[in-house]
Specification:
This protein has about 325 residues and is α/β, with parallel strands linked by helices. It contains nine helices and 15 strands. The strands form three sheets. The chain has a six-stranded parallel sheet with strand order 7-6-5-8-9-10, with helices on both faces. Strands 13-12-11-15-14 form a five-stranded antiparallel sheet. It has a four-stranded antiparallel sheet with strand order 2-1-4-3. Helix 2 packs across helix 7. The protein starts with 9 loop residues before the first helix and ends with a strand.
């Protein structure tokens, strides 16, 4: 783990999150101080997790915006792809210049941009974004690819045959793009599962995106909850679990002084206990960390008899 510099408060972390779309945070479990880490840590360890560094324990987590997938093309594969991606929980943006294809009636749950590909794809979609290119033809595919290849992104994929892919690579080289830029494009797009139908092709693409998104990820966190910090409150986080539990490591819930909440750590009596403690910490500040065994008498009192353990951290947030 990189050498830790100055500590950050919740509002500084919130600012970094809103600016960059993600922030990697290490919380010292001894004193509650928070540090911001470089993205290189993602290649060193699976997170979220508790790590020992210089004889101190830190909870490491990557707080990210909801993943956005920008799809260039609104054809048959895009239609099925958007449905599957929405079901999984991704935000989907559809880009096409044909009104009969790119419309809200066809893509009810997606953001639809009916405009020229280059103009629409030049917009700022943030950094936690995946670009999927599958337009009606090579010309538009290439225009889309050239527009996004140098933008900050987590993934770029181009759908097409080997011949089409070879042509795209040659065109990119002729237009001055280097080998490293070209290598970051997944082409042909998707995992090879022998896909034939539009639905099967869509699944192969989603599978590849999931494999990229979940690389070195131990569990899912709730980075979006940072957007809701605006007054005195307490952040409840599951920092470790074993066995069966309603939600995973990194799950968060924000508790305000009046007991209202944003998010969930799984409901039930454990969440109720966390809310009561959170209300007090929201008023007084501080940090509270406790293990709950889901198989002993304490767990029975909480109505949890599924087995395993959950460790929660509750941190006070003072609005100034």
């Amino acid at each position: 783990m990189s050498v830790l510099d100055r500590s950050y408060n919740f509002f500084e972390i919130q600012d970094l999150f809103l600016k960059n779309g993600s922030v990697i945070v290490a919380t010292d479990l001894g004193n509650g101080k928070k540090y911001v880490l470089d993205e290189k840590i993602l290649n060193e360890v699976k997170i979220p997790s508790i790590l020992n560094y210089n004889n101190r324990e830190y909870f490491i987590e990557n707080l990210s915006e909801k993943v956005k997938i920008v799809v260039a093309g609104a054809g048959h594969v895009s239609y099925v792809f958007a449905q599957i991606a929405n079901t999984i929980g991704f935000d989907v943006v559809i880009v096409d210049d044909r009104k009969e294809f790119a419309n809200k009636e066809r893509f009810e749950k997606a953001t639809v941009l009916c405009d020229d590909f280059e103009k629409a794809l030049s917009k700022d979609f943030g950094s936690n974004v995946y670009y999927v290119i599958m337009t009606r033809g090579h010309k538009d595919d290439y225009r889309a690819l050239k527009t996004v290849i140098r933008k900050k992104s987590k993934y770029i994929g181009l759908m097409g045959s080997r011949r089409k892919v070879a042509l795209a690579k040659n065109n990119l080289l002729e237009d001055g793009f280097n080998e490293n830029e070209i290598k970051k494009v997944h082409m042909p797009i998707g995992i090879d599962i022998g896909a034939i139908t539009p639905a099967e092709i869509a699944i192969s693409i989603i599978a590849e995106i999931i494999s990229v998104e979940n690389k070195n990820v131990k569990d899912k966190g709730d980075g979006e909850i940072l957007k809701h910090i605006k007054e005195n409150s307490a952040m409840v986080t599951i920092i470790d679990k074993s066995g069966s539990a309603p939600r995973g490591t990194g799950s968060k819930m924000l508790v305000f002084e009046d007991g209202s909440i944003v998010g969930t750590i799984g409901g039930g009596a454990l969440e109720g206990r966390a809310i009561e403690i959170g209300k007090e910490i929201a008023k007084k500040g501080g940090i509270f960390i406790k293990d709950y065994s889901l198989s002993n008498n304490e767990a029975s009192e909480l109505g949890m008899v599924c087995g395993g353990n959950v460790k929660i951290m509750i941190e006070g947030i003072k609005y100034e």
